[in-house]
Specification:
174 residues, alpha+beta, Aminopeptidase, 6 helices, 33% helix, 34% strand, binds coenzyme A
């Protein structure tokens, strides 16, 4: 039993929450990541990016949403209850053959530091390999540069401003 926030009375623990707690207690994975087109992933990706980029980082909505979303492959990580927690995208359309860009990597602030960023980045790198991509690049927020460096990305060129935040281009040969 738990106390329902909506009624203030005791209520049964929802099945999805019970499943999450049981999996955690048994040492089983409590997150999953799925990759797909914008048409299938937009609800989850939008929820996370709105919370992280628009609300937390105060990036203008006009800068956040662009035409690349429709052509990109998106990864969304959820908990066992289906709640979206993290996302990122892989863009290959319009680039040279064998090249792709990773972007819009975001993890809800409350769930950072438990491996969700890794889960999404590895899923996108796996997608890239399956597509025969050998050259990956991204624009890293300077504060996140060490996160990408752990996966072998190396900085290229000087820092630059993008949407008011210092960035650096990073590259990886798969
Ligand atoms: C950057 C971000 C995606 C990382 O996601 P995360 O879920 O917190 O990262 P993980 O838990 O998977 O971290 C994996 C490892 O990277 C390290 N790491 C994560 N972010 C780091 C950072 N900014 N600097 C240094 N190390 C970092 C973690 O300590 C962890 O190391 P460990 O395995 O040795 O403990 C997340 O912090 C985020 O969404 N930030 C806000 C939005 C943002 O800046 N996006 C990047 C745009 S380029």
């Amino acid at each position: 039993m738990h106390t329902s926030l909506s009624t203030g009375k005791s209520a049964s623990v929802p099945d999805a929450v019970r499943q999450q707690i049981m999996a955690h207690a048994q040492g089983q994975p409590v997150h999953q990541v799925v990759c797909g087109p914008w048409s299938e992933m937009m609800d989850g990706a939008r929820a996370v990016r709105t919370a992280v980029f628009v609300q937390e980082q105060a990036i203008d909505e006009a800068d956040e949403w662009d035409d690349d979303d429709a052509a990109a492959i998106h990864a969304v990580a959820t908990n066992l209850a289906g709640l979206p927690l993290a996302t990122g995208r892989l863009i290959h359309a319009g680039l040279a053959p064998g090249h792709a860009k990773i972007g819009r990597m975001a993890v809800l602030r409350s769930t950072r530091g438990v491996g969700l960023g890794d889960l999404v980045l590895l899923a996108l790198m796996g997608q890239a390999r399956q597509m025969g991509i050998s050259h990956l690049s991204l624009h890293a927020q300077v504060s996140a540069q060490p996160f990408y460096a752990r996966h072998g990305f190396t900085p290229q060129g000087d820092e630059f401003d993008e949407v008011g935040i210092p960035h650096v281009r990073m590259v990886l040969t798969l």
